Amino acid sequence: MKNLEYKNKKLQFSKTDIASVAKNNKTPFYLYSEEILVKNYQDFYQGAVNANLINPLVCFALKSNPNKELVKILAKMGSGADIVSGGELKRAMECGIPAEKIVFSGVGKTEEEILYALKVSKGKLCSFNIESLEELELINSCAKRTKTVARICFRLNPVVKPKTHKYISTGNKTHKFGLLEKDVLSFLKEKKYWSHSKLVGLSIHIGSQLLDLKATKKAIAKMCDIALKTQAPLEFIDVGGGLGVDYHPSETKRMPSIEEYMTLVYKTLHKEFYSKSDLRPRVVFEPGRRIIAKAGILVMRVLRNKISEDNHFVIVDGGMNDFMRPSLYGAYHGVTPVQEAKATTRVHVVGPICETSDCFGSDRPLPALKSGDLVILEDTGAYGYSMGSNYNLRGRPLELLIQKNQKLKTVNKAQDYKELL
């Protein structure tokens, strides 16, 4: 992981000594870097600009990490938001992201959430990304009741199979997400659903942790074809998010660069849409992981060792309730000791939760570790705290931010028992 290096045999993250931070803060805790977060956003946005994409809007996916202080940093840089709930809408707006930069995704928007979004945005929400006819009908009805016009974007299901984990693949017809081409074209003809709604965009989102762009190219081309068939004066085309990061060393060579990704988006849009239409809609992105994953680590302390014949377990104080991805997806995250030393054995790094799946890494080469030693789990900025829980009645961990001036800031205190009741 970049931005991790040893200095005098002590591990530093974003130029900050991790052991020093752990002296004054109880483990486990998340540690984020403002410098890395800012750079990742700037690289993504500037990549779109450099590729000559039209008036790009980067809508950060709040589901990846909705921490207020982190979202405020992104808002100040001009980021929009991709949201999937009323709570995320409130978080985005209270952090300074204007309604016109917010896309409301998700298959299960409630009537309460829709009415709130229409009222609080005064009809200026960038879009409701529609995923069913019943949803379109409900939103149109809510817009009529609130005397507004709902801005509608059809989320398309391009029927592609990206190379990613089945739980985070969203672009095939067997998935609950998106609309098929025939449905989109059919819904547009139903005038009764458009009395207080206006089609302003089309979108796709085919999955998360994408490292192979073949399916992405195919999906964008499909969206362009449907855009031409609708003959609608679209304001934007939303190419979604999901661009992956290199969690495992083997993924580094396969991971698309921002330049490669943006070039593919531009060339596909130019070939499949711009060359066939006078319309020049802006391009919207919905990245989450690519912006925030590498801006965070989880710091844990070793509780004890356990040896069961040829199985050596290192038990740490962080658990699957703090970081779910390895347990849920079998996801790989690097485990690194804070004190530099030569790896001498292969161990299973496990947490204290009463589940066999509470394991951060199996058969990992690590130095001899004893009670009190510190280790970190790499690349945990995305889908870490946001997917956490209070399972086993454990409080949610502390979140700390390394600011640009290298000073530490508490951006979310640790929960105590009273807060769990």
UniProtKB/TrEMBL annotation:
Listed InterPro entries: Ala_racemase/Decarboxylase_C, DAP_deCOOHase_LysA, De-COase2_C, De-COase2_N, De-COase2_pyr-phos_BS, Orn/DAP/Arg_de-COase, PLP-binding_barrel
Orn/DAP/Arg decarboxylase 2 C-terminal domain ranges (all copies): 31-381
Pfam families: Orn_Arg_deC_N (PF02784), Orn_DAP_Arg_deC (PF00278)
Entry keywords, A to Z: Amino-acid biosynthesis, Decarboxylase, Lyase, Lysine biosynthesis, Pyridoxal phosphate
Keyword Lyase attributed: yes
Cofactor(s) annotated in UniProt: pyridoxal 5'-phosphate
Function description: Specifically catalyzes the decarboxylation of meso-diaminopimelate (meso-DAP) to L-lysine.
Protein name: Diaminopimelate decarboxylase
